[in-house]
Amino acid sequence: MVKRLLLGLAMLAFIASSIAARAxxxxxxxxxxxxxxxxLAQVTLQACRKEGYQVAVSVVDRFGILQVTLRDQLAGxxxxxxxxxxxxxxxxxxxxxxxxxxxxxxxxxxxGVRFVGQAxxxxxxxxxxAQGVVVGGIGVxxxxxxAADDACARVGLDAILEKLEF
Length: 166
Hints:
By secondary structure, the protein is of the alpha+beta class. It has helices at residues 2-24, 34-50, 79-93, 97-103, 146-164; strands at residues 56-61, 66-71, 125-130, 133-141. Helix content is 49%, strand content 16%. A 4-stranded antiparallel sheet has the order 2-1-4-3. Helix 2 (34-50) packs across helix 5 (146-164). The chain is globular.
């Protein structure tokens, strides 16, 4: 009887440790909701329009998967793809593309990053952070220069900042 009890306790301990090990193998994370991604794109597009820019805006989730793209009617045909790639680059490298433009110049230690497929080192891509964690990325293309694209993206982010603090 004691042997059976000890064997049962040993099996219970083994099962409990297996369950605990599985729980350690799981991760939880936060990501941008589709509704907030759409709102961010709309607010950003409006910010660019106020400056007189016809642009495309793309928002990707924390994995770089496209959630939304909006293109103003007079934005160039290249702008949706350029905006998407800027957003993808920002979320992938967890750095805004204005900074990446500088640190990936020829002769810099990080210059090889420019050869990563899909990466686009032009200003206008900004990671979206909530509570210190990257939850997505935004990219803007079509304003006169990367600095103007970046400024539009940041206006949009500032407008939804309160909603990012889940």
